[in-house]
Amino acid sequence: MKKTILITLLVLAAGSAAYALGDNDANIGCGWGTTLFKGQTDKKIPALLGATTNGTYTQTFGISSETAGCTVKGGLVINEKKQATYAEANIQKLSTEMAQGGGEYLSAFATLMGAKNEQTKKAFFELTQKNYSTLFPTANTDSATMLKNLRALLATNPNFATL
Predict the structure, then answer these.
(1) Is 30 helix (H, G, I), strand (E, B) or coil?
(2) Pair (60, 94) in one structural domain
(3) What span, in angstroms and rounded, lies between the C-alpha atoms of 23 and 86?
(4) pLDDT tens by residue, 54-93
(5) CA distances from 149 to 4, 23, 60, 91, 134 (A)
(6) In 90-136, which residue ranges form alpha helices assigned H by DSSP?
(7) The whole model's pTM is what?
(8) Residue that terminates a domain, selected from 35, 65, 95
């Protein structure tokens, strides 16, 4: 019984240390197993144990929470989900404020889209107002269509290439 408790504590302690030191390895990916077997994954047994640890316990959690050495480049996937969720929840208000050329919902949305300062937000407001009929081609345009149209518009506009 004492041995089991001791082994469990050692595994948890090692896992916590690995979590704090998370890293990424080309052979086995990211997660606690990568940190535990850092520098040893060119050998079969450590690579197997590291990959098993990552796959069994930490890689899924690490990727979704961007911890344990697992990161999504620029958080692109996370940001796109936030943008889509916000647009869906606020489509009517966004439609109104885009037509008007500004407002608090559109300001928050501009921030989610990557506008980092007031000058960029103002340009974003002008762009959405000027291209309202492109963003909302019909009265029944849904948030996904508006967002797709907006991203295409931003991609073709050199002032917003980084958004």
Answers:
(1) strand
(2) no
(3) 32
(4) 666 555 566 555 566 666 555 445 678 889 999 999 999 9
(5) 58, 37, 32, 14, 7
(6) 91-100, 104-112, 118-130, 132-135
(7) 0.55
(8) 65
